[in-house]
Amino acid sequence: MAELKHFYETFQPKHYDVYIDIDREKKLISGKTTITGAAQAQEISVHQKYLKVSAVQAGNQDVPFTTDDQADAIRITLPAAGDVTVAITYTAPLTDTMMGIYPSYYQLNGEKKQLIGTQFETNAARKAFPCVDEPEAKATFDLAIKFDEHPGETIISNMPEKSEKDGVHYFATTVRMSTYLIAFAFGEMQSKLTKTKSGVEIGVFATKAHQANELDFALDIAKRAIEFYEDFYQTPYPLPHSYQLALPDFSAGAMENWGLVTYREALLLLDPDNTALDTKQLVATVITHELAHQWFGDLVTMKWWDDLWLNESFANMMEYVSVDALQPDWHIWETFQTSEAPAALQRDATDGVQSVHVDVEDPAEIDSLFDGAIVYAKGARLLVMVRALIGDDALRAGLKNYFAAHQYGNATGADLWSALGAASGLDIGAIMHSWLDQPGYPVVTAAVKDGQLTLSQKQFFIGEGQDVGRQWQIPLNSNYDAAPAIMKEKEVTVGDYAKLRAAGQPFRVNVGNNSHFIVKYDDTLMQDILTHTDELDDIAKLQLLQDLRLLADGRQISYATLVPLLPRFADSHAAVVNTALYRVASNLKRFVTPDSPEENQLKAFYNQLSADQLARLGWTPKAHESNDDQLTRPFILSAALYGKNGAAIAAAHDLFKANADKLASLPADIRFYVLANEVHDFGSADLVDELVAAYRETTDGSYKGDLRAAVTQTPDKALLAKLIGLFKDPDTVKPQDLRSWFYGILANHHGEQAAWDWLRNNWQWLEEKVGGDMEFTTYITVVANVFRTRERLNEFKAFFEPKLNTPGLTREIQMDTKVIASRVDLIEAEKDAVNAAVAKEIQ
Ligand SMILES: [Zn+2]
To answer: How many Å lie between the centroid of ligand 1 and the Cα of residue 471?
Structure first.
């Protein structure tokens, strides 16, 4: 592979004057960018992508240049090296790719409108204007933007608008920042504004298609989050404003542009009167994630993309730290335990997974680094581990020094470790090295051998894995003081088991489930834990179910042994326990063929598991009920409906009939289950049409999500084919939402074949539509989440193996092949035993 050189090495920009004129009608961008900087050589390179460059001047003189599309470059020959001002005149197309400068489409009172916005991370600033598009190439920017403006339109950017002259909007000079964080947007917008205690202006912006009160929740969270971070980081927010903007078309979840954060509408706006608690929690964590980046990522930026984890892992931890402070009654760390922890543990167990820190050069590979389960979830778990080791005082002191030392500049992981190390007196770098630079994680086996309690570590795999002898420095968090705080060795002896046990409780490690490993207890130790489950707290129960499930996925124990455990925990009132329990239960569905006698048996088991809780919780949320009850009810309703509980089905049908003319007003917590039940058991073509029409119309993101998920549940193949026919109709299925639609139909066994055929027949179209985007590979992941037969495995291989050399897809194809293969092997080997175990449980 040719060595890729960073353009920053030969040319260091100091300041940009960026003039951009955008013509929406002609779909044309024309601009002139003037860059002042230091050239280390006569030949310099500046990034561009799809730009048509007409002239390059240095010191007001035309100079020779060539464009190199292969390298995204303009190669410029300067009269001499040294300080220079380069002016580049160009045009570019305005395209619908959700990257660079792009239009978002929406309807207002039946009229089609657009809002122009930007998305530059990781390397799309170069599609908007020529620049050294590397995170290290920080500079100041003067933005001047003109567009085919109509009365009533607004424009916003990273900094406040300074003046307007002849239709050109001039923005205040930015602080020193990276190109990928530049942003602007214009069109007809509504906004709500407030100020923090320290005087930062907080704003939420959206199209006028939304109700004004949909902006309130975000405004409150954003204001309090900025105040929280100013205090926690002990570093002032560095810009005059922090604007949050909901874009109708947005590929990722949100983007931390400095001072102008952009979001999917569904991840910023919500109906304050009818939104489920978990949706509110999600929106709050997305906002606090992006605002954590305003310091960690924006003020101090990774030097190069190999340290992307620095940004993302940290923001992913801080979103929970801050929401926990803003809404302590939510117990948001429980959500960390039910979402981030299992996501990281599942994916990180497949051989071939990336490490958190990855060497990377090729721009096509950079986008594929955004592995949510690794760079976000695992990375956050590792930082939670660090936080637990050093404590909040040292964390805050270390961060304060880190920001002070690197503000408006760049840093690496080593810089963070040295700041946290200095504050805590611990060699954090040495401990973290084994976690960040190695893929995977260990299973710690706890066993009593010859009377001695021993612990050993070994890499844990789900599916085929090559053991290369990796070892980790494991914070054990045992409830026995005799166990070491950090286990560095392959094997350790804790001591005489009988004596240790006599003095305490059943032996456990990873108490709190905050270290990134799982535990396999031998029979003696496991039986001891199981006979004392009453003494376990809820996180410990979750952990027990989680670790056993993973061990079963990894074929270290049989799934059949998990079945009798489920009824023991089924009456728990804790949402964390129910989440873990129904995840195991959901995996049992893989062992049955749809509509078979075995599936009927499993349904009866589901009905049995959920019956008491259904009686306790009922369908309708009660006023002032606990968060746990609110979060548990969906699992119970889902289980009861799958379990063909007659009373539950009738109750859902009654709720539907009673609210048929106002479905949106059904309580958001249960709305999906009412709609899905109706579509599945009482559905018709008219009903599906009606729900699709409501989907097209509503601007409430969570209602939209409920409608989408519900209609894809229809068992009617003709209706499913009709829905697939909407995939390329952006007025109904926006490209940003296509994957969810596709997944819904693929996961419905009546639609699996049709959805899979659609993907294979339209792969090229899809690649043009969303390829070159960090979301693209997740279409492959989605398929791998569903397939469970050898026939599908072979089809998957036949289709994707020829694409193995596509940049950015290689790892995903290899991993997902293993994911499906290991599932198929597991099902073939254990199907009979699992179904027999289920049969035994049915009363
Ligand atoms: Zn982020």
So the answer is: 29
